[in-house]
Automatic annotation (TrEMBL):
UniProt keywords, alphabetically: Cell membrane, Hydrolase, Membrane, Metal-binding, Metalloprotease, Protease, Transmembrane, Transmembrane helix, Zinc
Cofactor remark: Binds 1 zinc ion per subunit.
Domain Peptidase M48, chain residue ranges per copy: 18-82
GO terms under biological process: proteolysis
Listed name of the protein: Peptidase M48 domain-containing protein
Cofactor: Zn(2+)
């Protein structure tokens, strides 16, 4: 992935209700959200508590779709199925 970076405060705040609800429901704390500068929609889990989403996903996914993708990636984190 090109240009992966930690999500900005604004990017996190825009998705905070989704992230907080998922983290509480799935029992994960201190999740780190990163953003990759890629035009296509994609997401993946890294390490012990990091999820990376692409700019393409953030631009195209609605809240429900994004929640589904993030829940899926949190599942990978909890199962240690990460890159």
């Amino acid at each position: 992935m090109n240009g992966m970076r930690r999500a900005t405060k604004r990017e996190v705040e825009q998705r905070k209700p989704i992230l907080d609800a998922l983290c509480q429901r799935l029992g994960i704390q201190d999740l780190v959200l990163c953003v990759a500068d890629e035009p296509f929609p994609n997401a993946y889990a890294l390490g012990s508590k990091t999820i990376c989403v692409t700019k393409g996903l953030l631009k195209t996914a609605n809240e429900e779709e994004l929640a589904g993708v993030l829940a899926h990636e949190i599942g990978h984190v909890l199962s240690w199925h990460t890159l």
